[in-house]
Amino acid sequence: MAGIAARRHRKRKLKAEINVVPYIDVMLVLLIIFMVTAPLLNLGVDIDLPQSDAKSIQEKKDPIVVSVDRDGNYFLAVEAGSNEAVTAQELEAKVRAIVAQDPKRAIFVAGDASANYQRVMDALVLLQRADVAKVGLMSQPKESGRR
Predict the structure, then answer these.
(1) How far is 120 from 116, CA to CA, in rounded Å?
(2) Distance in angstroms (rounded) separating the CA atoms of residues 87 and 92
(3) End-to-end CA distance of the chain
(4) Nearest to 122 by CA among 75, 74, 78
(5) Would you tell me which CATH number, out of the four given (4.10.320.10, 3.10.350.10, 3.30.420.270, 3.40.50.300), belongs to the domain 64-137?
(6) pLDDT category of residue 55 using cuts at 50, 70 and 90
(7) Nearest one of 49, 84, 67 to 127, comparing CA atoms
(8) Beta carbons within 10 angstroms of residue 135's beta carbon
(9) Which residue has the higher pLDDT, 41 or 53?
(10) Which stretches are annotated as coiled coil (predicted)?
(11) What is the pTM of this model?
């Protein structure tokens, strides 16, 4: 009878730990599934917008034109017909203020054909420092009779 009591005593002694290995395996499988399927999910929703006869709002503003004359002086034209002489520091400050208000405003550089190329490049650098993302270079079309 003493042997039976010892055997029962051994059976009662159970581990009080949770086996987490199966949970870790399941977690890793789910992690791999989500990593594979996440890029394939379409986050957008297709909707049909209502029809309307209203005209779209279009705000056409004159582009900003930075001119460099043959002597290397800078001129800034914010509105059509207004051309004011500015220094390099004034040019950068004014363009930075304008771009802060309207980042999509078109900006062009018009360099005189006989202007020093370095001064035109300096104007482009000033515009870049003023946080201008896109700059266009202005030119005139050639006359058909001239080559």
Answers:
(1) 7
(2) 9
(3) 121
(4) 74
(5) 3.30.420.270
(6) low
(7) 67
(8) 15
(9) 41
(10) none
(11) 0.54
